[in-house]
Write a structure and sequence with these properties.
Number of helices: 5
Number of strands: 34
Shape: globular
CATH class of the largest domain: Mainly Beta
Oligomer: single chain
Strand order of the largest sheet: 8-11-14-19-22-25-28-31-33-34
Number of domains: 2
Length: 310
């Protein structure tokens, strides 16, 4: 998430009321999660296990809960609770805007696009040309939809990320300041949910097609010409490359990559990165040819047991 304008390290430290390490005028341009950071970004870390990863990341400002040696060319914000202060920055730079109408006055809707009754279009939404939003679609703030997109009834774009920190008092929510971006020629079926990024974007690539009741988690990137069948659930921070086919009721764990032209058969569970150009089956998902041979062998067990008895 980029700030509307560049800030200094001292300004950010003042907002958070924390100590800082680095030049007062050190430039700060945004906040992001570790997997999408770039120079000018703040990344937060609150566990020693991940200190090195954060300090050596592309982020040039690290919001951290211990004063450590600052790498050259970077700056630190020292906080007793980086998770809380990351939320504070999200609230400050991307505050909640109350809706005042079913279709926001700040929404931009392109030529020949049709918005059916009972849709909700939030603040700062952009919808391209020749789109069709069927009745009862909900589009949260800051969503961007390209041209020639069809979205069926009951679908929700831009709900919050499912991201919590467990504390003694219960679960503390990490606030979402990212967006959903739908590229051109995408079809989204009925009753789908696509969550916005925590600080980055959840992206559905050009020409991809989602069946009914598909869930896409925060910060996930779906490539071009991807087919996803009904009741598939894809967790946050997943990368699905171009021309992948995912059949019904597949579950995909957070942080994995499904590479180009892979095919995932129905009811499979994907818990690791999968190579492209192959088909997969089972939970955990494995090469389908290997899996089918295993299943054929299992069917021989009763016969083998009968032979042993003889």
């Amino acid at each position: 998430m980029k700030f509307p304008q560049k800030h200094t390290l001292e300004q950010i430290a003042t907002i958070l009321n924390v100590e800082y390490v680095g030049a007062a005028d050190f430039p700060v341009t945004g906040i992001n999660e570790i997997h999408v950071v770039e120079p000018g970004d703040i990344v937060f870390v609150d566990h020693p296990k991940y200190y090195d990863k954060a300090l050596q990341s592309a982020a040039t400002i690290v919001l951290i809960n211990k004063k450590v040696e600052c790498p050259a060319g970077k700056a630190l914000l020292i906080s007793d609770d980086p998770f809380r202060d990351f939320n504070k920055l999200t609230k400050y730079f991307k505050p909640f805007q109350k809706a005042t109408s079913a279709i926001s006055e700040s929404a931009r809707i392109g030529t020949n696009s049709v918005i059916q009754p009972n849709c909700f279009i939030g603040n700062n939404v952009e919808i391209g040309d020749n789109c069709m939003l069927h009745a009862g679609v909900t589009i949260y703030d800051n969503t961007i939809i390209g041209n020639n997109v069809t979205i069926h009834s009951g679908t929700i774009l831009g709900a919050d990320a499912f991201y919590y920190k467990k504390r003694d008092t219960g679960f503390d929510k990490l606030l979402s300041g990212g967006r959903v971006i739908i590229k051109d020629f995408v079809d989204v079926g009925a009753a789908c949910t696509i969550d916005k990024g925590v600080s980055g974007d959840t992206i559905i690539g050009r020409g991809s097609k989602l069946d009914n009741q598909v869930h896409i988690g925060h910060d996930t990137q779906i490539g071009e010409q991807v087919l996803i069948a009904a009741q598939t659930g894809i967790a946050g921070c997943v990368v699905v490359e171009n021309d992948v086919v995912i059949w019904g009721q597949v579950g995909v764990a957070s942080g994995v990559t499904i590479k180009e032209k892979a095919v995932i058969f129905g009811q499979s569970g994907v818990g690791r990165t999968l190579d492209g150009g192959k088909s997969y089956l089972g939970s955990p998902a494995e090469d389908s040819k290997k899996k089918f041979r295993e299943l054929a062998s299992i069917r021989q067990i009763p016969y083998i047991l009968e032979q042993i008895k003889k």
